[in-house]
């Protein structure tokens, strides 16, 4: 479990920062067209793949680790750290969008 927490915190930090930067890019209003919005969306959807490392992590890097025991600490650590980065920006973005859709300023 300790290994899961120790691995989950940096993975949550990295992916939280990446998601935050992608959201900042998306709302910067600098020439976003359909192609760039789709690229940002695809990158956001790829974050869970990074969380679980793909098959190379489980088959080569951490092949001797008991994954069932590690996931009990890893998943909550990743979730807490990742969500900690995105709570305020997501709330602000939601409120801004609600004001634009609602027509009030």
Count every helix, treating DSSP H or I runs of 4 or more residues as helices. 5
Low-confidence runs (pLDDT<50, min 5 residues)? none
- Report the end-to-end length measured between terminal Cα atoms: 48 Å
> Which assembly state applies to the chains in this document?
single chain
Roughly how much helix do the residues carry, as a percent range?
over 70%
Structure classification: mainly alpha
Q: Count the strands?
A: 0
Binned strand content: under 5%
Q: State the order of secondary-structure elements, H for helix, E for strand.
A: HHHHH
Outline the biggest β-sheet: none
User: Can you tell me the overall shape?
Assistant: elongated
Average residue pLDDT:
80
Give structural notes.
Helix 1 runs parallel beside helix 5 (67-102). This protein starts with a helix and ends with a helix. The longest helix is centred in the last third of the chain and has 36 residues, at 67-102. The protein has 5 helices and no strands. With 105 residues, it is mainly α. It is elongated, with a radius of gyration of 17 Å.
